[in-house]
Amino acid sequence: MEKLSVIGIGYVGLVSSVGFATLGHKVVGMDKDKRKIEKLKRGELPFYEKGLGEYLVEVMNKGLLEFTDDVEYAVKDTRYIFIAVNTPMDEDGSADLSQLLEAGKSIGKYMNTFAILTVRSTAPVGSLEALENVLESEGKIRGKDYELAYNPEFLREGTGIYDFLNPSRIVVGADSPEIAEEIMKLYEKINAPKLKTSIKDAQLIKYASNAFLAARVSFINEIASICESMGADVFTVAEGMGLDPRIGRRYLSPGPGYGGPCLPKDLMALIRMSEESGYHPEFLEAIHRKNESQIRKIIWKVKGFMGGVLINKTVGVLGLTFKPNTDDVRNSLSIPIITRLLKMGAKVRAYDPMGNENAKSIFPDDVVICDTVKDVFKDADLILILTAWEEFANLSWKDMEGVVRNHIIVDAVGILRNKVPEGWKVWMIGRGYL
Ligand SMILES: NC(=O)c1ccc[n+]([C@@H]2O[C@H](COP(=O)([O-])OP(=O)(O)OC[C@H]3O[C@@H](n4cnc5c(N)ncnc54)[C@H](O)[C@@H]3O)[C@@H](O)[C@H]2O)c1
Fold first, then answer.
1. N or C: which end of the chain has fewer CB within 10 A?
2. How far, in Å, is the centroid of ligand 1 from the Cα of 196?
3. Domain match, 409 and 307 both
4. What is the 8-class DSSP label of residue 89?
């Protein structure tokens, strides 16, 4: 059993803390957000994540996981310090390192024994050198007082703890094999391919993986448009493609594009990183452009059904989160789509099974967030489905007929593909007008 600390208890930090404690380590989770820490101390999750709550309570009851907002307490006498703060997108598309550097500074201030600082945040090439500078300003010298490592996280929100305990691979980048081995040892109970690399390679493994997933989404959206223009069915095409083991089925679901807290920002950061190093990544830019045009495409479909004018039309939106089975609305494509509809004069009523609360703080006040699906349909001129929640596949469309003004659906995710409602005009991604 090793004692370790995790700085930054967001999705990645909390899943890592609970995961490491489940592996039998003694973990201190530290976050500067006092309200979040108070909640966690009571054994409550600060966000929805399937199955994580049970693991959290179990490790807390065993005394293997505690939470604090005191960075000194978290890093004092600690050899393994993991950093999992956010690296959001800066205005120019590069990764904003301010949280990482702020965390590094506070760690540097209180570190009192040799430590291995392992970054779990998605952090670009060059960021660990910036971290080193910050630690130096606190009088801590790399190699003498501490070492750095990079251990990217590949979890998917919604299955975070499962992914931590059953990862596709564990990657540790470090300057020396001994440091990489020490970090790897913390995962010794996990049976997965384990890859020890340089820090740069580990950083690029993370960025390239996310760029590849984004590429798959943009690719299938391209094929969806081709299918629509030829009268083919993208869902059948994707199924047939996915049966090839060289291709696989994952990330071949057409929709409004890739959103969420990782893919958009990581692709942009890779583009910026690449440009700064002297290479112009045309292919990555095309992935991004396709994602942007997908947003416009969905808006055009809505506009087309409304005769080109959205003023005083009511659009009922089903789904706000960036994907189903999460309450996360960060960078969800519902945000630019709804914002644009509002700008064009539409009224928007929206509902999400899990994301309503988070949406209230992100969406403009003029979006009416509804407590029930039925509320969304009230006086709606068109229903727009933006997230593939299973709940929407099983709706009783017949019951809604007396509530809406028009029987029109734009299904931007294809959730109705197996049960297209009768008596409604439907446009579906990858199939066109039905
Ligand atoms: N969310 C995901 O699915 C996912 C998956 C893989 C990798 N990542 C990467 O992991 C990193 C974290 O993402 P996230 O979604 O967990 O972010 P998050 O915003 O949910 O969590 C970050 C946490 O860090 C805390 N924090 C910020 N500065 C701090 C400081 N100086 N000291 C202590 N705490 C501080 C914040 O209060 C917040 O709770 C990002 O780089 C992200 O790209 C995220």
1. N
2. 24
3. yes
4. B
Nearest CA to ligand 1 atom 18: 10
Q: Are 49 and 161 in contact (CB under 8 A)?
A: yes
Residue 29 in contact with ligand 1 by CB distance below 6 A: no
Mean pLDDT for all residues in the chain? 96
Q: What percent of the chain has pLDDT over 90?
A: 96
Q: Is residue 102 part of a domain?
A: yes
pLDDT digits (tens, 9 = 90+) for 104-140: 999 999 999 999 999 999 999 999 999 999 999 999 9
Q: Are residues 211 and 187 in the same domain?
A: no
Statement to judge: residues 42 and 125 lie in one domain: yes
CA 102 to chain centroid, in Å, comes to 22
Ligand 1 atom 38, closest CA: 10
Give the chain's domain count: 3
Closest-CA residue, ligand 1 atom 26, reads 8
Q: What is the CATH number of the domain that holds 409?
A: 3.40.50.720
**165 lies in some domain:** yes
- Indicate whether 201 belongs to any domain: no
Residue after which a domain boundary falls, among 167, 195, 223: 195
Tokens standing for residue 253: 């679901």
For ligand 1, atom 5, the nearest C-alpha belongs to 155
Interatomic CA distance for residues 369 and 352, integer angstroms: 8
Active site residue 370: no
Question: Ligand 1 centroid to 84 CA: how many Å?
Answer: 5
CA–centroid distance, residue 157 to ligand 1 (Å): 13
pLDDT tens by residue, 363-398: 888 899 999 999 999 999 999 999 999 999 999 998
Domain final residue pick, 149, 168, 195: 195
Largest CA distance in the chain: 73
Asked if residue 33 has its Cβ within 6 Å of ligand 1, the reply is yes
The whole-angstrom separation of Cα 31 and Cα 13 is 9
**Same structural domain for residues 107 and 164?**
yes
User: Residue whose CA is closest, atom 4 of ligand 1?
Assistant: 12
CB-neighbour burial class of residue 422 (10 A; exposed 0-12, middle 13-18, buried 19+): exposed
262, 295, 333, 426: the active-site residue:
262
Ligand 1 site, residue 269, Cβ cutoff 6 A: no
Structural domain boundaries enclosing 190: 3-195
- C-alpha–C-alpha distance, residues 183 and 205, integer Å: 17
Q: How far is the CA of 7 from the centre of ligand 1 (A)?
A: 9
